[in-house]
Amino acid sequence: MESWEFFDYLLENAAVVGTPGAGFGQNGSHYFRLTAFGDRQRTIEAVERIKKLLG
Predict the structure, then answer these.
(1) Which pLDDT score, from 0 to 100, does residue 26 have?
(2) Domain spans of the chain, in order of start
(3) How many whole angstroms separate alpha carbon 20 and alpha carbon 32?
(4) CA dihedral sign of residues 31, 37, 38, 41
(5) Alpha-carbon distance 53 to 16, whole Å?
(6) CB neighbours of 10 closer than 8 A, spacing ≥ 6?
(7) Taken in order 25, 26, 28, 31, is the CA torsion positive or negative?
(8) Which of 7, 5, 15, 2 is nearest to 49 (CA)?
(9) 2-52 per-position pLDDT tens digit
(10) pTM above 0.70, yes or no
(11) For domain 3-54, which architecture applies?
């Protein structure tokens, strides 16, 4: 799955936003970047949603 497809998948199914790796050049097209700029609890919640979705 390309990074933009994964971006859409996470947004639609887990309500989590990240950065598609394709934005960092052609070699990043199969990567996805998550950041933790929110508070600790929201970061934990986002990780739990991702784990549940991909589990």
Answers:
(1) 87
(2) 3-54
(3) 5
(4) positive
(5) 11
(6) 16, 17, 18, 32, 50, 53
(7) positive
(8) 15
(9) 999 999 999 999 999 999 999 899 899 999 998 877 889 998 999 999 999
(10) yes
(11) Alpha-Beta Complex (3.90)
- Looking at residue 35, its pLDDT comes to 80
Total count of residues recorded for the chain = 55
Contacts for 35-41: CB closer than 8 Å, 24+ residues apart: none
- Token output for 2: 């390309």
Pair 4, 38: CB distance under 8 Å: no
Q: Write the burial class of residue 29 (CB in 10 Å: 0-12 exposed, 13-18 middle, 19+ buried).
A: middle
Q: How confident is the model at residue 55 (pLDDT cuts 50, 70, 90)?
A: very high
- Per-residue tokens: 18: 């990240």
